[in-house]
Amino acid sequence: MTPRRALTGFCVATGLLSVAPGAHALFEDDEARRAILDVRGRVQVLQQQTNDKLDELSRRVERLEQGSRGQLELQSQLDAMRQEIARLRGQLEVQTNELVTLQRQMRDQMANVDSRIKRFEPVTTQIDGRTVTVDQSEQRAFEAALALFRNGDFRGALTGFQLFQAQYPDSPYLPSVLFWIGSSQFALKDYKGAIASHQALITKYPDNPRAPDALLNVGYAQAESGDRRAARSTLESVIARYPQSQAAPLAKDRLAKLPAR
């Protein structure tokens, strides 16, 4: 080898040696840049994916929030509706109670009205064997006076029957009223009044079932007042006119007790 060649080889070798480190560095920079670009790309992809996921999550959160708001609003509406239902139920219960109370009051009022009306309605009853229709007030007045007589209050009975006679001049009770007036007078020893009352019954109602008893009472009153002749005549008349009556044997018994003429 010549010195020139050796020098040239040395220079080339030196140059190669001097170039090798730079080339190596350049190679490393390219690799680094590619690595960086690759990482950057990956980061960008990851960022995009992350952003996409964040966007999706945001949308889901928003939907959930909207759903929650909707549920809250729905829950609020349901609560309001429940409160309204409770209020309406309360009103219904109050109104139902008021209705029940009103119905009960109406029933009581109707019963009261019906009772009052019935007090004025005529009633059917038996008087001296006849079925007749009389006012309830009329019936009560007669029965009240008769109760006084049966309890021995002859003065009160006489007043009651006389008031009845004046208040109900056309009553089907009148034959009985005349009989009990005469009986009250007899009990009070008003024999003259008793004779007049019983005679009025016989004259006005000769076919009344009480006529035989009325005529018998006339004979009794005449006997008690000392008019024996009249009493005998009357008692004989009872036997003759009403031989089948219960008064006939009583008349015979009283005749037997009359003193001789």
Structural features:
single chain; 261 residues; mainly alpha; 8 helices; 2 strands; 82% helix
The 3D shape can be described as rod-shaped
Structural class: mainly alpha
SSE string? HEEHHHHHHH
Rg to the nearest angstrom? 66 Å
Report the sheet with the most strands, covering strand number, pairing sense and barrel closure.
Answer: 2 strands, antiparallel
Give the count of helical stretches: 8
Work out the oligomeric state of the chains in this entry: single chain
Please give the structural blueprint.
Elements: H1 3-120, E1 123-127, E2 130-134, H2 136-150, H3 154-167, H4 174-187, H5 191-204, H6 211-224, H7 228-241, H8 247-257
Helix pairs in contact: 2-3, 3-4, 4-5, 4-6, 5-6, 6-7, 6-8, 7-8
Tell me what you see in this structure.
Strand 1 and strand 2 (130-134) form a beta hairpin. With 261 residues, the protein is mainly α. The N and C termini lie far apart (221 Å). The chain has helices at 3-120, 136-150, 154-167, 174-187, 191-204, 211-224, 228-241, 247-257; strands at 123-127, 130-134. The longest helix is centred in the N-terminal third of the chain and has 118 residues, at 3-120. The chain is rod-shaped. Helix 4 packs antiparallel against helix 5, helix 4 (174-187) runs parallel beside helix 6 and helix 5 packs antiparallel against helix 6. Strands 1-2 form a two-stranded antiparallel ribbon.
